[in-house]
TrEMBL record, chain B:
It comes from Kaistia hirudinis. PANTHER family: ABC TRANSPORTER PERMEASE PROTEIN YPHD-RELATED-RELATED, GALACTOFURANOSE TRANSPORTER PERMEASE PROTEIN YTFT. It holds the Pfam family BPD_transp_2. GO terms for molecular function: transmembrane transporter activity. The chain crosses the membrane at residues 9-28, 48-66, 73-91, 164-185, 213-235, 247-266, 273-293, 299-324. This is Simple sugar transport system permease protein. The lineage of its organism: Bacteria, Pseudomonadati, Pseudomonadota, Alphaproteobacteria, Hyphomicrobiales. It is a multi-pass membrane protein. GO terms for cellular component: plasma membrane. Keywords: Cell membrane, Membrane, Sugar transport, Transmembrane, Transmembrane helix, Transport.
UniProtKB/TrEMBL annotation, chain C:
Residues 1-22 form the signal peptide. One of its GO terms (molecular function) is carbohydrate binding. It comes from the Bacteria. It comes from Kaistia hirudinis. This is Simple sugar transport system substrate-binding protein.
């Protein structure tokens, strides 16, 4: 295929080095201004057929703005867009589709209560005598899905399948409708390891077929595993476009941040400081059909890491501890005194805090301001009638916003306008404002950019040093190793290991997760 | 608070109200004329306030409900029931205070019932309150046996038609309720909690808000407001008309809250602005009456005006106006 | 027949008609529901009428639903009643069930409202003449004001409803040719007391505080009662400063008449069943086929017609 040949022949970056017609899609000097804020500043971006092109950048770097311009959701204020060398004006994502440009978002934008086939063909169903030809639609769907390695019933409801399958269905739909350019906006953020692997196979196949693919992610491993070239943006400006085989991980991160970050890989940063003061003790604590009874002692000033696959019971354990789904077995004591933990309100009154895994569904109050999002838990603790007035709220939000380095134009702007990383910091600030003794963090670094990631890891270490007890659930094993003084491993809704000292290393953890772990794998993948 | 008050004075709602009033004035030059008569203010503007009071009171209760991402369809039926109970009690010889307390207690009970269905049984609000919307009117008809229960109890009549400092009692009651409920939600944390639950109930609960209790309280306030409106409407016509009292007023109350800036998806709310919304609706009704339009045009004129107001308030219009104003700030 | 004194009249009627004939008659009555006071009164008068005639009445309340009425009628047919009274909630969709009744040789009498369907499906229909009601009200006004100029405000019923259209039409016919009487404002009060009051308030403001209004014509008494309150609130005397004429004859308008606040009402009698039973009795006795449309009387009541007595007579009927 000509496309892959072209990809091979491209030496380095930049459109000047390349014949213009080589780009399947190109943005030349595009700018976008929101009020006084220049979100994109003369950015060039070229996409070759048959390549996976990663788009990287910190919060506010301009990634999503560029994507919205490429898909027609925004109109650029300057510069031009070319498809196959010809200038085009893209009025809307639907219009962009007619030029062969399709997009798949992190949150699958399909109809979960309709069948897989209907989702694939929605808007262009095959018809017979003016009616939808369901049988033909399902037959064609089966063929289409097979090309993506999916053996599922096209007549089944989409929502019954895992997020990964839904994602692949979304890709199949986008490719079928568009066919030239596929933009994947954080497609792996809510997938587990197996699902990511499966998705990568699909993407690699599409690449071989000559599709030009833009890939946006926060996972550097995935960038190196999948992408051919990378474009890095910072503060709305183009930093560089280069081939990945000519780049080390450190160089890439430096380009993104414009500085070296203080944590990397599995180098252990934690200071082993064993504490003896017991804060909490969970004895035979469990809940039917949720998590088998477990024993866990939590000391002041320690981070307990929780490792395990999706569905292993790690989140369920957190929910039981926090009283959301109260335990129906065992008992919990705090500083020796029995505690009930029958509701979140009760747990919070005892000094617990909980950053949930699903930030959007369970964490942020999207329409409310950054200020209100930060004070809400403290206000909840104070009750209905001891209201914090506006000035007190601003003080608190300012103080904890600063401590977490939240980047918001104003404390009164809706929190939903912040980036994922900043939203996560807001939720952390919310709990820090309550001065908690025990903080549970469920996947605190998922789906956020490198800078915010480092910030949160630093915060975890700082809080631990200040004497707080933390329970951190994460699927980033390197990360767990980096900050945990103890690691508990969950498998099949059961606590299967408690690792200390030398045992806290990726090898041992992976082994603990993996032993007899096949069932969990299957559950998570299908 | 001051900054908020300032921001709230000039906005689309007040501009729309002034616009409708001015339009009425163009159609009927005597619209703004107010006289002092028999110890009370008398004029079309007072009519707008007085006739708008029941819907305003419903909207005061409806707005927090809508802010929790709920809706209370039962308020019209609760009005009918409250009126029926109050009227039947005075006709049966009970003193007015018992009749009023009985009606309010009934409103409270209805609110708690709705709240339990929504908060504890997790029934969708539109369905949960539909139960009482349908059954409530039937209960009211049972109480009145299908007829208008006429009474002449001076206290009840005073609540509906009396005056205080020259203002009709319904206006005084609506204003007092507006101030009371606004202070109750804004001087405590309840307002913030209502918005938090409306925006994201799960997140609010995880942040330690007792969302179930909050929902029951919010629906109870709505029930109490509806009962108050029911007593006023009965007092106004000196009779409880179970068939017609409060009929379709739940929709006017929802509309008032929406004109007042509340979103049916929950979140931000302003009780004073909902009251302004109720007055906008009533200003249109009164304007139609004094302007002399044939009645066949009533609904068309009303629908047209409301569409216009909602269009002006729509996000798209906000964006368009935004371009002319300070420009738009957005996320990158 | 004097329907105004229907209790007495019914007694006489019962005495006159062959009681042996009536006593073994079983009649099913499918009522719409109890959406208004008048409807409730019709129900209680019908029961009274049946009782005084010794008729065994089977009553079914349809709660405003045609499907319930059809069910009730089928039930009556299955029970083998001698006749069926129906106050149809809507005009269409009766052909099937009335054909079933016809096949079972059970005569059907329509009360109060008509249907769109073949006339042979029912024995007769008893109803008032709404145009005439409006005309009687208008005629009263013409006679009362004579040659003096009179500006009238009109409180219409629900927009587009048949009684509103007909009562408006009748009134306009009656005042046609009397150029001294003009309708200056007309708005809908939805047949309710509170809307009647609200609309009247608007009229009073719009017409120089009510000083320019000579009379108010309301399509029903409930709206008139509301309007009376509005007139009083405006500092005027209803019945004197502004004449009040309306239609229906509910107890509260007689109470207003006693207080001198209402001037005239045209009765819509709730006794539709009396003439229906009479027609049925005659039909059963010797096959006398009644006229297809029995029109009830539209009687005018003024303060001269013992309003206090009329009030007392009506107040127990469920208005």
């Amino acid at each position: 295929m000509r496309a892959s040949g072209a990809a091979m022949s491209i030496g380095k970056l930049g459109r000047s080095a390349v014949g213009e017609s080589a780009f399947r899609m190109e943005a030349r000097g595009v700018s976008k201004v929101f009020g006084a804020h220049r979100a994109l500043d003369h950015v060039d971006f070229g996409l070759l057929p048959g390549e996976v092109h990663a788009l990287l950048g910190e919060n506010g770097a301009g990634k999503s703005t560029l994507i919205k311009i490429l898909t027609g959701a925004y109109q650029p204020d300057g510069g031009e867009i070319l498809v196959d060398g010809a200038p085009v004006v893209l009025n809307s994502p639907l219009h962009a589709q007619t030029f062969g440009i399709g997009t798949v978002y992190q949150e699958v934008n399909l109809l979960p209560n309709r069948s897989v086939a209907e989702n694939l063909f929605l808007g262009h169903q095959p018809t017979r005598f003016g009616l939808v030809d369901r049988r033909r639609m399902e037959r064609e769907s089966r063929g289409l899905l097979a090309r993506y390695g999916l053996d599922i019933d096209p007549g089944s409801e989409l929502g019954l399948h895992s997020v990964a399958v839904q994602q692949i269905v979304a890709i199949a739909r986008a490719v079928q409708l568009s066919g030239k350019v596929l933009i994947l906006d954080e497609p792996t953020a809510s997938l587990d390891r197996d699902e990511v692997r499966r998705l990568f196979e699909v993407i690699a196949n599409l690449k071989r077929e000559g599709l030009a693919i833009v890939f946006i992610t926060h996972f550097l491993d995935q960038v190196f595993a999948l992408a051919d070239r990378v474009t890095i943006l910072r503060n709305g400006k183009l930093v560089d476009t280069c081939r990945l085989d000519a780049l080390t991980r450190t160089e890439l991160v430096r380009k993104m941040l414009g500085k070296d970050i203080s944590f990397s890989g599995s180098t252990s940063l934690k200071t082993e400081r064993p504490t003896t003061e017991v804060l909490l003790n969970f004895e035979n604590f469990g809940r039917r059909r949720s998590v088998r009874p477990f024993n866990l002692t939590v000391h002041k000033g320690e981070v307990i890491g929780v490792a395990g696959l999706l569905g292993s019971g790690r989140t369920e354990m957190a929910r039981i501890m926090f009283g959301i789904d109260p335990a129906d077995e065992g008992r919990a004591t705090m500083k020796g005194a029995p505690v009930g933990l029958r509701s979140a309100t009760e747990a919070i009154a005892l000094g617990f805090g909980f950053c949930p895994e699903d930030r959007k569904a369970d964490g942020i109050l999207g329409e409310l301001s950054v200020r209100e999002n930060i004070v809400i838990a403290l206000q909840g603790k104070l009750g209905w009638f001891r209201a914090l007035n506006r000035d007190e709220q601003l003080d608190l939000a300012g103080q904890f916003g600063e401590a977490m380095d939240i980047r918001a134009a104003s404390l009164d702007m809706p929190v939903k306008l912040l980036s994922g990383g900043n939203q996560q910091k807001v939720i952390l600030a919310r709990w820090l404002a309550t001065d908690p003794a025990f903080l549970i963090l469920d996947e605190p670094t998922r789906g956020i950019d490198v800078g915010a990631h480092a910030e949160i890891v630093r915060t975890i270490n700082r809080l631990r040093d200040d004497g707080m007890a933390l329970l951190v659930i994460s699927s980033e094993i390197d990360e767990v190793v980096a900050y945990s003084s103890r690691v508990v491993v969950m498998r099949d809704r059961e606590m299967v290991a408690e690792l200390r000292g030398e045992d806290i290393n990726p090898g041992v953890i992976v082994q603990a997760i993996a032993t007899h772990g096949e069932t969990a794998h299957h559950e998570a993948a299908t | 608070m001051n900054r908020m008050a300032l921001r709230n004075v000039v906005n689309t709602q007040t501009v729309a109200l002034v616009g409708v009033l001015l339009l009425n004035w163009v159609l009927f030059p005597g619209f703004f004329r107010i006289e002092w008569q028999d110890g009370r203010l008398f004029g079309s503007l007072i009519d707008v306030l007085n006739r708008g009071a029941p819907v305003a009171i419903l909207a005061i209760g409806m707005t927090p409900v809508i802010a929790t991402k709920g809706v209370d369809l039962s308020v019209g039926a609760v009005m009918a029931m409250a009126g029926a109970v109050a009227a039947s009690l005075v006709v049966a010889g009970y003193p007015a205070w018992i009749a009023v307390s009985g009606a309010l207690a009934l409103g409270l009970a209805c609110g708690i019932w709705n709240g339990i269905l929504v908060a504890l049984l997790d029934i969708q609000p539109i369905i949960a309150t539909l139960v009482l919307m349908v059954a409530g009117r039937g209960i009211a008809q049972l109480v009145t046996e299908g007829s208008i229960v006429t009474f002449s109890d001076p206290t009840l009549v005073f609540i509906g038609t009396g005056s205080f400092l020259g203002f009709p009692m319904p206006v005084v009651i609506a204003f007092a309720l507006m101030v009371l409920v606004t202070l109750a939600v804004r001087k405590t944390a309840i307002g913030l909690f209502i918005e938090a639950v409306g925006v994201n109930r799960s997140a609010a609960t995880l942040a330690g808000i007792r969302s179930r209790l909050l929902l029951i309280v919010v629906y109870s306030i709505s029930g109490l407001c509806a009962a108050t409106a029911g007593i006023i409407v009965a007092g106004d016509i000196r009779g409880a008309d179970a068939n017609n009292a409060g009929l379709w007023l739940e929709l006017d109350a929802i509309l008032a809250a929406v004109i007042g800036g509340a979103s049916l998806l929950g979140g931000r709310f302003s009780i004073p602005m909902s009251v302004v919304g109720a007055l906008i609706i009533q200003a249109m009704n009164t304007g139609i009456l004094v302007s002399g339009f044939p009645p066949e045009f009533n609904l068309v004129v009303k629908a047209g005006m409301i569409t216009l107001i909602l269009m002006i308030q729509s996000p798209l219009a906000g964006h368009i106006l935004g371009w002319f104003g300070r420009g738009k700030r957005g996320a990158a | 027949m004097h329907f105004n004194k229907f209790v007495l009249a019914a007694g006489i009627a019962a005495a006159l008609s062959s009681s042996a004939m009536a006593a073994d008659m079983t009649v099913g009555f499918s009522q719409i529901g109890s959406e208004s006071g008048w409807r409730a009164a019709e129900t209680s008068v019908t029961k009274q009428q049946a009782e005084t005639r010794g008729i065994n009445l089977k009553f079914a309340d349809a709660q405003q639903k045609q499907e319930n009425q059809i069910k009730a009628i089928r039930g009556f047919i299955a029970q083998g009643v001698d006749a069926i009274l129906v106050a149809p909630v809507v005009a269409t969709g009766w052909d099937d069930v009335l054909t079933e009744a016809k096949d079972a040789k059970i005569p059907v009498v329509l009360l109060d409202r008509g249907i769109d369907g073949p006339e042979d499906l029912y024995l007769t229909s008893v109803a008032s003449d709404q145009v005439k009601e409006g005309a009687v009200a208008g005629g009263w006004l013409v006679e009362t004001v004579k040659d003096k100029p009179c500006k009238v405000v009109e409180l219409q019923g629900t927009v587009g409803s048949t009684p509103a259209i007909n009562r408006k039409k009748g009134f306009e016919q009656a005042i046609a040719g009397h150029s001294n009487i003009t309708i200056i404002r007309s708005q809908t009060g939805d047949f309710t007391r509170s809307k009647g009051k609200e609309v009247m308030e608007g009229f009073l403001k719009a017409e120089n505080g009510g000083k320019d209004i000579c009379a108010v014509y309301a399509h029903n008494d409930d709206m008139a009662v509301g309007a009376i309150q509005a007139i009083k609130d405006a500092g005027l005397k209803p019945g004197k400063d502004i004449l009040v004429v309306s239609i229906d004859g509910v107890p509260d308008i007689f109470a207003a008449m006693v207080a001198g606040e209402a001037n005239a009402t045209v009765e819509l009698t709730p006794n539709m069943a009396g003439p229906a039973f009479d027609a049925l009795a005659a039909f059963k006795k010797d096959g006398t086929v009644p006229p297809k449309f029995i029109i009830t009387e539209s009687k005018l009541y003024t303060p001269a017609d013992d309003p206090k007595g009329e009030y007392e007579r009506r107040k127990g009927l469920g208005y």
